[in-house]
């Protein structure tokens, strides 16, 4: 059975589309929308693992 429904790791809303994820030291986090993902990133910068597949040029 793969009937596990997970809530957004930021706001707790049920996540239907598994499109907004982040890899962190604690495992993969799942979010309901781009906004929640972005906020989590800001709040947990130290926990986020860099994803080589999304190697975006950083603005420094
Ligand atoms: Zn959310």
Characterization of this structure:
The chain is α+β, with helices and mostly antiparallel strands. The longest helix has 10 residues. The protein binds zinc ion. The site of zinc ion has 8 residues, from loops.
Brief sketch in words of this structure:
This protein is an alpha+beta fold. Helices cover 17% and strands 17% of the residues. The mean pLDDT is 84.
Rg, Cα atoms, Å: 12 Å
Largest sheet: 2 strands, antiparallel
Order of helices and strands: EEH
Neighbour order of strands in the largest sheet: 1-2
Helical percent range? 10-25%
Show the helix and strand layout.
Elements: E1 20-24, E2 27-31, H1 34-43
Antiparallel strand pairs: 1-2
Bound molecules: zinc ion.
Q: What key attributes describe this structure?
A:
about 60 residues; alpha+beta; two-stranded antiparallel ribbon; about 15% helix; about 15% strand; globular; binds zinc ion
């Amino acid at each position: 059975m793969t009937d596990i429904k997970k809530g957004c790791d930021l706001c707790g809303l049920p996540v239907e589309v598994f499109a907004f994820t982040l890899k962190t030291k604690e495992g993969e986090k799942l979010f309901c929308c781009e906004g929640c993902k972005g906020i989590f990133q800001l709040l947990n910068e130290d926990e986020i693992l860099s994803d080589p597949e999304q190697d975006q040029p950083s603005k420094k």
